[in-house]
Design a protein that fits this description.
It comes from Pyrobaculum arsenaticum (strain DSM 13514 / JCM 11321 / PZ6). This protein has about 140 residues and is mainly α. It has helices spanning about 5-15, 20-45, 50-70, 75-80, 90-110, 115-140. The longest helix is centred in the N-terminal third of the chain and has 29 residues, at about 20-45. Bound molecules: fe (ii) ion (2 copies).
Length: about 140
């Protein structure tokens, strides 16, 4: 899902501020963790995760995709390159994380069953947490 120009400009603006960027990371993580618990409870009590719940989670995951697109649009990479203690490995590592996250987000949307859906969602949350902490460290140090 491609972001609109307005969305992209807003997201790029957020990347300029450590606090705003960090808050986005925390909000997305918190929301996905809550959805994961709810989806798991739904599976336990009703025997399946509803399409409605899955759609809400997938729209939440789209926020990670939009965030990634904004980060890779230039400002983010320029910010890293402008740093005195810039390491090219940092960009490679962060981009690799983005690729893995995108792979898992696509896998969630086509998950064959509820177990696979929850497993992939859990993996995304953990990787996003590790990625966000590393990104904040290298981007604003
Ligand atoms: Fe990122
Ligand atoms: Fe980020």
């Amino acid at each position: 899902m491609a972001p609109t120009d307005v969305e992209l400009v807003e997201l790029i603006q957020i990347l300029r501020s450590r606090d705003a960027h960090s808050e986005i990371h925390r909000a997305v993580t918190r929301s996905l963790e809550n959805h994961l618990v709810e989806a798991f409870k739904e599976l336990q009590t009703k025997g399946a995760i509803s399409k409605e719940t899955k759609d809400v989670i997938i729209s939440e995951l789209n926020k990670i995709t939009l965030h990634r697109i904004a980060e890779e649009s230039g400002v983010y990479l320029n910010k890293l390159r402008d740093k005195r203690d810039y390491y090219p490995e940092d960009i490679i590592r962060l981009r690799r994380d983005h690729e893995i996250l995108e792979h898992l987000i696509n896998a969630v949307t086509v998950a064959a069953n509820n177990t696979e859906f929850l497993a992939k969602l859990s993996a995304i949350i953990e990787i996003f947490k590790i990625h966000s902490a590393y990104e904040e460290k290298v981007l604003y140090r």
